Description:
The structure holds two protein chains of two kinds. By secondary structure, chain A is of the alpha/beta class. In chain A, about 35% of the residues lie in helices and about 20% in strands. Chain A contains 13 helices and 16 strands. Chain A has helices spanning about 20-25, 65, 70-85, 110-120, 135, 140-150, 165-180, 195-200, 245-250, 275-285, 305-320, 330-335, 340-355, and strands at about 5-15, 15, 35, 50, 100-105, 155, 185-190, 235-240, 255-265, 295-300, 325, 355, 375, 380, 385-395, 395-405. In chain A, the strands form three sheets. In chain A, strands 1, 2, 5, 6, 7, 8, 9, 10, 11, 13, 15 and 16 form a twelve-stranded mixed beta sheet that branches. In chain A, strands 3-4 form a two-stranded antiparallel sheet. In chain A, helix 3 packs across helix 6. Chain B is mainly α. Chain B has helices spanning about 5-15, 35-50, 65-80. Classes of the chains: A alpha/beta, B mainly alpha. The interface of A and B includes residues 59, 63, 128 and 132 of A.
Amino acid sequence: MKRVVITGIGCISALGNGVDELIDGIEQGRSAVKRMDDWAKYNGLQSIVGAPAVLKNTKDIPRKKRRSMGRMSIMAVQAAQEALEDAGINNDDVSNDRCGSIIGSTMGGAEALNETFETMLPDHDLSQLTSMKFFQCVSHTASMNVAQYFGLKGAVMATSAACASSLQALGAGTDLIRLGKQDIVLCGGSEELHPTVTGSFDILFATSTHFNDKPKDTPRPFDKSRDGIVCGEGSGIIVLEEYEHALARGAKIYAEVLGYNTCGSGAHVSQSNKEAMVQCLSAALAEAKLSKEDVDYVSAHATATIQGDIAEVEAIREVFGEKVPVNSFKGYIGHTLGASGSIELIAALKMMEKGVIYPTLNLDELADDCKGVMHVKELIDKQINVIVKNCFAFGGINASLVCRRI
Amino acid sequence: MNEIEQMVNDVFIDSFELDIDELKPEATIFEDLGLDSLDIVDLVVALQKKFAVQIRNDDRVRSIRTLGDIYSFITALKSEMAD
């Protein structure tokens, strides 16, 4: 089996366009969550908060390339461009059949889907639909557009497992490279903030609803006052590369992907399942051939739901014990759903580079039911050699990834 | 430039990000203005919306080559509707 390393990172988030902007915002303890006044028109929507990204320089993408892109594809292309530049790879060098893209999302372009239905349904009239709506809507819109933009000729795929989508993308990319089928895969996720997306959680009573007038105080992972998810948007793209390929070109290497697992709970479509989380974490650790003592830090999924945070704390405690630092990035940028795994892994890789662990924002008073792991409430200086990243999704789907500094 | 020509030009500026300087009556849709087959679908949708007409299945669309052809086609269509 080939070895797989991370050689480039790029992201768009509500904290800004680029990895540096993301990390600057986190270091300053800034929340990007805002009150979404426009959403008040939706009857029944209880959560009026979100973490929107501000797209910039979109017209740098030529019209014929851009016309098939909704917000999520534009964000993915810009994140991918940053990742390739970070990796020191020219765009021309990925336009071959050894380079691919695997980029996930929850359900494709939410904005384009909504526009399509708003155009078509009132009069049941398809004649006003433009040619590009399909390409902006589909589940593989981000992966397809990234592949078209950069001329990738290898595997082009889209994982779709809600909040686990981008970690599954990284897992699938890792497997392709391990098997020798690809040299480079642009992996990650992209997601759009849209009231219909927040609404899907809202009707299940999973969103934060008590902080509409104090948006920066939510979400509150592991906190006593946590009351649910705040949706965000963005894209995180990671360059996965075959180890020898990276060595041959003298690439900077962030870390090696050692272990990955995804599994279903087989138990419930929405409720978190501690046993399945334990199974996932244990399998990822076993694949990495590491023991719990080797792990320096766990980047939790922790969306600030009542039950989800409890189950994850219990699972982390069972697998790693009480001494491994754990944080959640959701307080800074909201829950970026299908992009959360890759965006948060990027933040974790920067922590590995800097030798610090950032605190969980809005964790002011630890909830009794979330005790039992080492929560990071203030910045910690620590050399991180091994990261574990978690993503747990609706549908009872779990994913965990283990990577180690080389 | 009459009102119809101005409105057609607005479609090209808004939908295809072209400059007014490029919009000469003799400009060919594909070669000079750079549209492709997918753009033509969107051009039809945009013209239908702009002029409140149905042209998707009008055979005359197939013979359009230049911007001037579109001016003439829309002018004829509006004339027919007025009759």
